Amino acid sequence: MKKRKSLFRRILKGILLFVLCFSGGILLYLGIEAVLSRMTVEGVATKEKELSIYIINNGAHTDIVMPVHTSVIDWSAWIPFENTLGKDSSLEWIAMGWGDKGFYLETETWADLKASVAINAAFGLSTTAIHATYYKSMQEGERSRKIDISREQYRNLVAYIQNSFQTDETGKYKYVATDKQYGANDAFYDAKGSYSMLHTCNTWANNALKAAGLKACKWTAFYKGIFRKYPL
Q: Among 223, 225, 227, which residue's Cα sits nearest to residue 61?
């Protein structure tokens, strides 16, 4: 009986130690994120404001929104309207977000989240995708910010985003044929890179702003850090 009690105590101590270490790791992670997300990378100063982009969030995830047609790029040539359910070629804006493919395709709501998907995403064990969504119009609001930029900054932003896509042997983006679209005007494409706690969807968006020479966080895992840089 004493041996059983001793074994039980050891197991209990082991569980408690694991919980404490895990909790401490999470607190450390959140603390580092809080500090680095408040540090600002100022970007490249320019007086040229030749076009506008937007950043939007859904309460967790940041997308970069760009005009469909400009002299820099026609996004509809790369992200065909035909790949959306609505096939509406009158839409004028396109949002791009990068993230874990399992989250995008298998987790419509938090209630649908599987432990395997969460673990794979947290530790970079799964593939990634870009979620592209067309919009008719954009305006600033609680979950959107307008950013006026130069054409050169936009070229750098486009280069960063294009380099995030996987391409086939012909150079086209790899379209993900699925019935998991969120609406009539979106589509998924295979992406490069791995999602993890250190490189989240918001880290990707923050890095996109850095690549364009725009104000950004030193590093962030959450959308709030990015939006803190662009108050209404």
A: 223
DSSP state at residue 229: T
Cβ atoms 158, 114 nearer than 8 A = no
Q: What is the Cα gyration radius of the chain?
A: 21
Residue 140 has what DSSP assignment? -
Task: Judge whether 190 and 129 are in contact, CB under 8 Å.
Answer: yes
> At 90, which amino acid appears?
S
Tell me the whole-structure pTM to 2 decimals: 0.85
pLDDT tens, 112-170? 555 665 566 566 667 899 999 999 999 999 999 999 999 999 999 999 999 999 999 99
Extended strands (E) in 49-143: 51-57, 62-67, 93-100, 128-135
Q: Check: CB of residue 26 under 8 Å from CB of residue 60.
A: no
| Cα 217 from Cα 43, distance rounded (Å) | 10
Residues in the chain, overall count: 232
Q: Who's near 6: CB < 8 A, 6+ residues apart?
A: none
User: Is 45 strand, coil or helix?
Assistant: coil
- Residue 206: φ, ψ to 5°: -65, -40
